[in-house]
Amino acid sequence: MLKLSPEAKVGIFVLMGIILLVYMSLRVGGIKFGRPEGYEIFVKFDSVAGLDKDASVRIAGVEVGRVKDIILEYNKAKVTLMINSDVKVGKDFSAVLKTKGLLGERYLELIPGSPNAPAMEPGGEITKITTYTDMDKLITIMSDVAIDIKKVSESLASVLGGSEGEATLRNIVKNVEDITERIDNMVKANDEKFGRILTNFEEFSSDLKEKGPEITDGLKAVSDNLNQVIAENRDTLKDGFGNLKEASSKLSETMETINRLAKNVEPKIDESISTVNSIVKKIDKGEGTLGKLVSENTVHDNLNKTLTGINSYLGRVETFKTYLGYRGEYLFDAQDTKSYFSLRLQPKADKYYLIEIVDDPRGKKATETTETTIGGATTTTTEVKTSDSLKFSAQIAKRFRDVTLRGGIIESTGGVGFDYYMFKDRLKFTFEAFDFDKKRNPHLKAGLTFNLNKYFFIVGGYDDFVSKLKLESPYFGVGFHFEDDDIKYLLGSASAAIPK
Prior knowledge:
The structure is a single chain. Helix 2 packs antiparallel against helix 7. The longest helix has 51 residues. 42% of the residues lie in helices and 34% in strands. The strands form three sheets. The protein has a ten-stranded antiparallel β-barrel with strand order 9-10-11-14-15-16-17-18-19-20. The radius of gyration is 46 Å and the shape is elongated. It folds into three domains: 95 residues, no CATH class; 134 residues, no CATH class; 178 residues, Porin (Beta Barrel), CATH 2.40.160. By secondary structure, it is an alpha+beta fold.
């Protein structure tokens, strides 16, 4: 029976793991060999800020393809779409950029047109573009609100202003309060009477229905008696009409008195109108607090500045990206795995901050030499001590075309590094130098990273290859990383809550 060495067993185990991981990555990531299943069409936008390659293409919210490529053509962004072969895109379809939630990733939505429109041929162009976004509509509405507020303030300024206007407004409010109080007292005083009247009317209506015939006979008798009384008292009635004429004359005198009072009030009304005109003129000249507010357009300018600041802040948050990741590197010399947990904060496409927690099974090794003299004989003892298996990194990185320079804290010591990208960022060469200790030589590490798809990657290289502590070791490993919008939202909320 063939016996395998431990190294061979480990190698077979790692190889099987790699094969399984590659298969799972291809299945999960949707990577297929050979020609892609589908057809290409393209669409041109004035701006595709926030839209990445491999972004989703949807119809009615259902994914029907992916963004294959984005290039600049004649000062416009040309977006190439790979549409599934079983989906037909009509020639009258329109395209619009949308965002998942307020701070989510952007995707491209295709809006269907007429059901009878002919299908678009491969290589065709969608010409109907909707350029506005949900956030743009929000800013437009807020601007309209600001204009309405300014109109209201101008209308208010044309009526009130200064101490005279304030006094006039105070008198008007007092008069309204007096009238309201009188009406309220009147209603309260007669509320019970109105209730009794309604009750009596209801009882009267019921009695009238029951005693209708009797009442009719009674009314006829009363009419006969009334005719008899009128015939017997004609002279008395003439005297009554004379008294009524006298009362009418007195009413006429009362109306004349009212007219005289109206003439006395008219000058006071004219004086009040003159006061209002004076207030309006002062507002037009910019006098008083309200006049300055209307003439200098302070409220409108400040509101516009505020809206501009909000728009700028939301634009920066939309381009901000956060990535979480993990990778494990198997050290063949130590026969153990070194783990990295990473958080990358990327405010711009060419700049990011990298924070990592590193679990190193070898820890941090240091050489300590001790000399002991006993009986005139000196003994030198060299001891290698291990500490701090858990380390951390905090780096700032800046990208220049295909090269990224990094610096900061690497595995709890100062260090620098650079990355060189190849094959459209699919393959990356990495070199790092840190832990510049004379007793052990600098910790140098070089390796390659190959992206299997958008989420999974494999790494391999040589670690600590100039170490005096004999810690040099080849390594091989796998990892994954993904964009997390929840962390971006939390960071944006926290920054907005911090007082300026």
